[in-house]
Amino acid sequence: MNAENFGSSERLVAAAYVRQGAQGRRGHELLLRALLEQGKCPEDGWDESTIELFLHELAIMDSNNFLGNCGVGEREGRVASGLVARRHYRLIHGIGRSGDISAVQPKAAGSSLLNKLTNSVVLDIIKLAGVQTVTNCFVVPMATGMSLTLCFLTLRHKRPKAKYVIWPRIDQKSCFKSMITAGFEPVVIENVLEGDELRTDIEAVEAKIKALGAENILCVHSTTSCFAPRVPDRLEELAVICANYDIPHIVNNAYGVQSSKCMHLIQQGARVGRIDAFVQSLDKNFMVPVGGAIIAGFDASFIQEISKMYPGRASASPSLDVLITLLSLGASGYKQLLKERKEMFSYLSSGLKKLADTHNERLLNTPHNPISLAMSLKNLDENNDVAVTQLGSMLFTRQVSGARVVPCGSVQTVNNYTFKGFMSHSNDYPCAYLNAASAIGIKKQDVDVFLKRLDKCLKTCRKEGNKEKSVNEIHDSKTGTEQLAN
Length: 486
Description:
alpha/beta; 13% strand; globular
């Protein structure tokens, strides 16, 4: 409805009522105007009717929704199912063009506007979360691992002689495979144990650079968010080394946007040294379906190079999901979620410590990890070799998801590389342990139910362990008696 149509409406409905309706619509339009002019996440979240109005306005700007459109090409936004069309708000053309995922599509002005606005709003949120000097970012419809691969492939053209990627070890398959898929050889740097924490071995990183030659190294691939007892890499020191040796630096910030500490590390690393790009997951940081990531950096031209490396058009679904989410939450809503996550981390830490004390275990001291916690399972492991893995199964069958039980001595081969002590980020971590994380969206009820069920599972495991121990003792006693009789 425009002014002319509102004027025509006054012939059918009293003018005062029509004007009131026009004022109501004007309120929605002012929100849309502010978004288009500023390109920032609104401070207060929008209601669903405003968001749906906005998406409808975008959709009718795409050629597939023109009333008189006649399409004779191979890609005309045709959709066989009305349900599918409604699921995507009739934004069918996706984002980008064959040469650049960030490019504008001539026949899809609405989808192109959606893409530009999403990238702009996300950039604003990254700054709000702590990386103030970030200059450019874009949403890519791939999860973190493949997005890292895209970064490595972009660097290949800048460093054609390079074949190695320096990688402080983190036992997570997708980040390891991201380097293999890009055609490079990961050089694994083992972590060093400091107290309970596993930290970056800076001396080993620099020694390996000298041994291999800086020109043969594609980049350093570091990590922020991770499972305790590993903690975020020493980003500042790594960034300084990269600057000194003129080596690119790519940061895996998978679920680090929700942590002010992780974001501060990235900001400081860029300030004192070199960070070329940092990659973060959409689902882990913004509570949207899996399938998207954000690639961001401090050199706008390099981030643009990465976007141009993406072959072909791309799905708009991740961009649409995160834009709807951020418009719903607003900046204040997202900040509130970050605040609640921090509070829940302290609450989970306190509860897990009390539970550990009850079962003669301990909460591992990992102050540099702002998201993940670890509780030792030393006594459980000593009483029964398989009890640790049984605990993980028991928690899963009791509908506890996300908790990781890490036994000692696990061996895993990934792409012909064998990791000893796999999942523990170390060849020989001193004890088995259990992980739990306070991630964005977690509620007090989640923590309370988890601690209650974990307590019951530990008691059950201890009982079964004691029974098995008694049976073994009786068996050993009988064997000893028989040997004496003979």
